[in-house]
Design a protein that fits this description.
The complex is a heterodimer. Chain A is mainly alpha-helical. Helices cover 74% and strands 1% of the residues of chain A. Chain A has a two-stranded antiparallel ribbon. In chain A, β1 (181-182) and β2 form a beta hairpin. In chain A, α10 runs antiparallel to α21 (431-454). Chain A starts with a helix and ends with a helix. Chain B folds into 2 domains: 11-85; 88-150, no CATH class. Chain B is 73% helix and 0% strand. Chain B is built from 6 helices and no strands. Classes of the chains: A mainly alpha, B mainly alpha. At the A-B interface, α9, β2, α19, α20 and α21 of A face α1, α2, α4, α5 and α6 of B.
Chain lengths: 499, 156
């Protein structure tokens, strides 16, 4: 217990960690707010720079960026009707109408306080649930990990994209990219096409920077001439009365945020839409009709997306499964630093868990401080023309990918993935499933082969084991239901029920 | 009038290319260990190849009744594709990006970055020579100081 407390307070008492968390949170707010920059993009570029750092320093900065970034998107959603991040799309539904009514300051202040409440509830759940889940996860068989990974990819495929087929294709493509190189068990080359350079595999950070950084930068070139919208904002600290009025709703939507965030492969963007939908359905008399500046429509998504941060850490730290694209990148950061995210992390490196929990709480405190101050400077920064921003993003992408191996090969790969990502984006394929596939592909390969070996390489016994073990059965049913819910069978059943 | 959304110019061709890529993945997966033991190095890749093909077939099948992009013939669709997705700004910026990579090898990071930032800003902002110079100088300086001195990473 004493150890846990000292790990928890590590970032609070060490001046350099304290500063890195503060810088990360502040930078995250701006990264999340500036349209064209994203938290995923920033963390993937950042990882390449923090290779040589101490793991605590790297994690402190990333936690700050993640927490600040999820919140930051709400500011531009309120001020400019441009969600800075996908998790703030729902915030703009009522946030921007509030700004148009001259209540931008009040809206920003309330969204800040509610984001912090959501964030802290998410961390509380992480701290209380994760140790038990981690103990439970030690009992999981390889087939269960395999099924959880399949479930995660199916979830992100079906929720984040317009059709499950597109999501599955993107995830499978990512998994193939993740498998390029020598097989870790037999040293058999896979997808190397005889190239020596591919024997070592394709660094997933290169894929991330290409698909999130370069592809997005090129995509932003389409909106080069969009005129910046200016808003006048003054007093932003909300009254205690207003905060208390929306506290019950914020607690409910925080719970939604944590649960959705904890599902492998989902994240703040889906959580915020679910929460908005919940608010719309459950509140009969909102302050104004939803969509015209209802404070409830602002509170619900803002608490949920920040609560999802804590939720996303749950499967990441206990199962080694990313809760969303950012935690997929953080898994990579932990692996780079010699750590093994999953149930053994709590045994091998318990300090990482409690350090992360303490750091998330700290980042939320900094979020409150930075969120309620410096709004005038912020308003100027978000008006930065894209013509300045886009070349800078490209330079950062080049530096980030080069620094991985001090080689231009990674830079060319990064540009290649950028081009592929651009095409995929144009034709409505999402990047999230690709990145999750890159991370989960090798894990699925490993667990599938372990599961097969455990039943003597007999396919029939493997399939039988999926339905004879209680946990595997639950997971198999979830996978099958998710698949069926995306087939014409669901429409047929619904039609049958209606008639 | 069809109820299905119309396809973007080049969308069907891109999906067919992805289907071909999937077939290539399946072939490469087969080349790993053939149809060997179900826990061989090639088993999971074979599954992935099959999944990619199945999902691309499902996407193409789902689009069979979608209306086309309203173009006349492949040439017209190609022209639409380029005007829609590769406007001049993207083509020029892509050329600048490739030029930047070449310059990095010959001139080193600082000079190549400064030239790239300045030229691309002047092009994208259609002028603004003074502000572009200032932004270039400040940004190059900050990037160099931040990454070389503070983060201590190798720069190209």
């Amino acid at each position: 217990m004493a150890d846990s407390v000292s790990y928890f307070l590590m970032a609070w008492l060490d001046p350099s960690l304290l500063m890195l968390t503060a810088i990360g949170t502040l930078a995250g707010i701006y990264v999340g707010a500036i349209p064209g920059l994203s938290v995923t993009m920033a963390t993937s570029i950042l990882i390449s720079f923090t290779f040589s750092w101490d793991v605590n320093d790297a994690l402190a900065l990333i936690v700050g960026i993640y927490t600040g970034g999820v919140y930051g998107g709400s500011r531009t959603a309120i001020l400019l009707n441009i969600p800075g991040a996908p998790s703030s799309v729902a915030t703009s539904f009522d946030g921007y109408p509030l700004a148009q009514k001259g209540e931008a300051g009040q809206a920003i202040g309330l969204s800040t306080v509610m984001s912090v409440i959501g964030g802290l509830i998410g961390v509380a759940v992480l701290a209380s649930v994760a140790p038990y889940l981690s103990d439970m996860a030690l009992q999981f068989a390889p087939r269960d990990y395999f099924l959880i990974a399949v479930l995660g990819l199916l979830l992100v495929g079906s929720l984040a994209t317009e059709s499950l087929s597109r999501g599955i294709f993107a995830a499978a493509l990512g998994a193939v990219i993740g498998l390029v190189g020598l097989d870790q068990v037999t040293a058999t080359p896979r997808f190397t096409m005889g190239s020596m350079q591919l024997m070592g595999g394709i660094h997933y950070v290169v894929v991330m920077i290409g698909m999130f950084g370069v592809a997005e930068a090129f995509f932003q070139l389409h909106q080069l001439n969009a005129k910046p919208v200016r808003q006048k904002v003054d007093k932003i600290v909300p009254s205690l009365h207003l905060v208390l009025k929306f506290l019950p709703l914020s607690i409910r939507t925080s719970v939604i945020g944590v649960i959705v965030g904890a599902l492998p492969g989902t994240g703040g963007d889906i959580a915020s839409l679910f929460a908005y939908d919940h608010a719309k359905r459950s509140i009969k008399k909102p302050s104004r009709p939803f969509g015209t500046g209802a404070y409830e429509g602002l509170v619900a998504p803002e608490t949920a997306n920040n609560a999802a941060v804590g939720g996303a850490y749950v499967p990441m730290l206990t199962l080694g499964m990313p809760g969303d694209a950012v935690t997929a990148i953080i898994i990579g950061a932990l692996v780079i630093h010699g750590l093994n995210p999953g149930p053994m992390l709590m045994i091998e490196a318990p300090h990482i868990f409690w350090f992360t929990v303490g750091n998330l709480v700290l980042a939320n405190i900094f979020l409150l401080i930075f969120g309620l101050t410096g709004i005038k400077v912020f308003a100027k920064v978000v008006e930065l023309p894209k013509a300045i921003l886009i070349p800078l993003i490209l330079v950062l992408c080049v530096v980030g990918s080069y620094s991985l191996n001090s080689s231009m090969t990674e830079v060319y790969w990064m540009l290649g993935f950028g081009l592929l990502g651009y095409f995929m984006k144009i034709f409505r394929f999402q990047m999230g499933p690709v990145i999750l596939g890159v991370i989960l592909g090798p894990l699925m390969d490993k667990t599938y082969r372990q599961a097969m070996s455990s039943v003597g390489d007999d396919t029939g016994s493997f399939l039988l084991s999926l339905v004879t073990n209680p946990l595997s059965l639950v997971l198999t049913i979830a996978v099958v239901l998710l698949l069926l819910s995306n087939t014409p069978l669901k429409r047929v059943l619904l039609r049958h029920r209606q008639t | 009038m069809s109820n299905h959304p119309s396809l973007k110019a080049g969308e069907r061709a891109f999906n067919v290319l992805l289907l071909l890529l999937s077939l290539g993945v399946l072939y490469e997966a087969y080349r790993i260990t053939g149809f060997d033991l179900p826990n061989s190095a090639g088993a999971f890749p074979l599954m992935l190849g099959a999944i990619m093909i199945a999902s691309m077939v499902a996407i193409l099948w789902g689009q069979r009744r979608h209306t086309g992009p309203g173009t006349q013939g492949a040439l017209d669709e190609a022209r639409h594709f380029f005007s829609e997705h590769f406007p001049l700004a993207i083509i020029v910026f892509s050329a600048m990006a490739i030029g930047y990579l070449f310059l990095l090898t010959f001139l080193g990071f600082i000079s190549a970055t400064a030239i790239f930032l300045f030229v691309s800003q002047v092009y994208l902002r259609r002028g603004h020579l003074l502000t572009s110079s200032i932004v270039t100088a400040v940004a190059t300086g900050i990037i160099y100081a931040l990454f070389k001195l503070l983060f201590q990473v190798y720069l190209p």
